[in-house]
Amino acid sequence: MSKTKKKHISDKPVYQEYLDDIENTKEELWKKYFNIDISLKNYVFDYTIITNCYSASLRFINKDKLQEEQDKKEKMRHARQLYKGKTKEEKDALKKKKKEEQKLQKNGQPLESS
What we know:
This protein is α+β, with helices and mostly antiparallel strands. Helices cover 49% and strands 14% of the residues. It has a two-stranded antiparallel sheet. α1 packs across α2.
């Protein structure tokens, strides 16, 4: 008798559906596996556990910095998609181009269209 992974209507494994839309499903997943009923004034839970293998900490973000953190995470997600499947040389070329664009923007010069 062979065991198969649980499938959903879309014929994808259930966990893949969560991973594909992790930003909108993280709250559901955290509530399912953890009981985190901590509330701190002016702070929100960041769905992050930090550990050094001896102790663990939950990460909370000040509400004033929440949008800044979300923007940073979105940029990192975008960069991962941009570099996915690229060779080291291609990644280095993209990074160099980005640095040049940032330098031009800092100096107030318009960007050239590629």
